[in-house]
Every structure is written in structure tokens, then in C-alpha cells.
Design goal:
By secondary structure, this protein is an alpha/beta fold. The chain contains ten helices and nine strands. α1 packs across α2, α6 (about 155-165) packs across α10 and α7 packs across α10. Bound molecules: S-adenosylmethionine.
Length: about 270
């Protein structure tokens, strides 16, 4: 197997693991550059694959490089090619993200597997703490949903959740031709900066419940979606916060969802 721009692919891609390998070094450089501060603190790469980003990290940074890869064969390959990287075989969906607190200032990077990028980002932003910045490539449509604002048809649970814990920005679009195998979709590179601890939801579980409840019925009005929790005082409390009961889920801001989740599912009003 040979790639046009990035040298030979050593290992055949496994579709089940969302493997589309980046073979354009200029794009790889742009992604790594977006992480900023090449010599500050450790960096953790998720899904290094055959090392498209790892090789740039290794040539531009003197900081510690860690890599989390689910595919044993690729983990071995990256270990051999980049001995300076500490490679962990593991699953980003079930990884102990809380452990990053022991590596303050860590930056995260990865061309995420398309099939699990959304649930993986969902886990990372609320469980990891102490990280400084992240740069991830995802499917373009998912990237648009992540940065969508209220009133937009692409605004949904993923937008609210990721924006509650971080500030995401869509940096640039990436065409399919720079991967092997060539996917059918465009990709997007996004940066994420964590919100200061005081601004993050204090009870993530209440936010997650209200998002699941509301976005299951995104076309309906809140008075119908929240019927079973509609006490006498709730409409007034909502109205005092600028949330009419006739609003639809896609009209609510991130902070309104945080409040509503705590109000309905939290133990204190
Ligand atoms: N970074 C490489 C590149 O840019 O060419 C590979 C990107 S490829 C889109 C996604 C990578 O994530 C693959 O190496 C794949 O094996 C790995 N991967 C897939 N599922 C994973 C998971 N659940 N946890 C960690 N890595 C995973």
C-alpha cells in the first residue's frame, strides 16, 4: 500500500476502528501548529494510527508525548517509530480521563475515528480536568454541530454539552483526498479550550438528563416536553429567567439548559 504524499502505509486500515490515515504532511503540520506552545507541558495524542501527527509532534516538540491507541498493531508500530512517545493501548471511550488531573497543563490532540468521535469528546470534556487546550479532527458535519449556536438547526445536545465544558472553535475544513483510504466525507479541525472550573456545570448528570429529555423531542415546546415536571411555580421561574414555556429546545442557551437541568433533576431548587 502506498500513499501519495506521506510515504507508505505500513498497516492496512481497519474500517471498524474508523481508520482513515492522514497522508498530507502540510495538513498534519497545521493541526499540530493549532495546538500552540510546542514546548510547554505534555501532549496526549488520541489514536496516533501510523503516526501522521506523532511524527510532527516528535520533530517540533521537546515535551513528553503520550499516545492512546486501541489498535495493538498500530500501538506497536508507533512505539517502534517514535521511541520518545509513551504509547498506551486503550480505548478513548472508557479511558480514565480523570487521571489527566495528574498532568496539569496537558494538551490533547487527535484525528479522531469518525464512528466514535462524538461520544469520545462527550466523555473527555466532562471527565478530564487540568488540560490546557485540545485540537481534534472530526467529521465536518459533527464539527458544525459542535460549534452551532441556539436557533440553528444543527444546535443540539452535543453542542450544549461540549460548550458547557469548553469553548470550541472550528478552525478549518479538510478534504477527503488527504486520507487513505479516502473517506466519503469532509473533515474539520476544531480547537477546544476548557472553561474555568467555576463556569463548568456543577452537576453534569442533571445537564445530561435535561439534554436527553429535551432533544428527544426537539420540535416540541418545553411545556409539552416537561409536562410531567410542570409544577405550579416552574413556568414562573422559567419566565423570570427569560425561558418561555412555549420555547423549543433549540432556542435555549447553554446556561439556560444548565439551570433547567439543575432545577428539574437536581436535589435543590
Ligand atoms: N492519527 C492518525 C492519522 O491522522 O493518520 C490516525 C487517525 S484514524 C482517523 C483514528 C485512529 O484512532 C486510528 O489509529 C484508530 O485505530 C484509533 N482508534 C479507533 N478507535 C479508538 C478508540 N476507541 N480509542 C483509541 N483509539 C481509537
Amino acid at each position: 500500500m502506498a500513499s501519495e504524499k506521506g510515504g507508505p502505509l505500513a498497516v492496512r486500515a481497519k474500517r471498524s476502528l474508523g481508520q482513515n490515515f492522514l497522508v498530507d504532511r502540510n495538513i498534519a503540520r497545521r493541526i499540530v501548529a493549532a495546538l500552540g506552545a510546542p514546548n510547554e507541558g505534555p501532549v496526549l495524542e488520541i489514536g496516533p494510527g501510523q503516526g501522521a501527527l506523532t511524527s510532527i509532534l516528535a520533530e517540533t516538540a521537546s515535551r513528553p508525548i503520550l499516545a492512546l491507541e486501541k489498535d495493538r498493531e498500530l500501538a506497536r508500530l508507533v512505539k517502534e517509530r517514535y521511541p520518545q512517545a509513551g504509547v498506551v493501548i486503550g480505548d478513548g471511550l472508557s479511558f480514565a480521563w480523570e487521571g489527566l488531573a495528574g498532568l496539569p497543563g496537558i494538551r490533547l490532540i487527535g484525528n479522531l475515528p469518525y464512528n466514535v468521535a462524538s461520544p469520545m469528546l462527550w466523555e473527555i470534556v466532562h471527565r478530564a480536568s487540568g488540560w490546557n487546550k485540545a485540537v481534534f479532527m472530526v467529521q465536518y458535519e459533527v464539527g458544525r454541530r459542535i460549534v452551532a449556536v441556539p436557533g440553528n438547526g444543527e444546535y443540539g445536545a452535543l453542542s450544549v454539552w461540549l460548550q458547557a465544558f469548553s469553548t470550541p472553535r472550528l478552525l478549518f475544513k479538510v478534504p477527503p483526498q488527504v486520507f487513505r483510504p479516502i473517506p466519503k466525507i469532509d473533515s474539520a479541525v476544531l480547537s477546544f479550550v476548557p472553561r474555568p472550573p467555576g463556569e463548568r456545570p456543577r452537576h453534569p448528570e442533571t445537564l445530561s438528563r435535561i439534554l436527553a429529555t429535551c432533544f428527544q423531542k426537539r420540535r416540541k415546546q418545553l411545556k409539552s416536553i416537561l409536562k410531567m415536571w410542570m409544577t405550579e411555580s416552574l413556568p414562573e421561574e422559567m419566565s423570570a429567567r427569560g425561558i418561555p414555556v412555549t420555547a423549543r429546545p433549540e432556542d435555549l442557551s447553554v446556561s439556560e439548559f444548565i439551570w433547567l437541568g439543575e432545577r428539574i433533576f437536581g436535589s435543590s431548587p
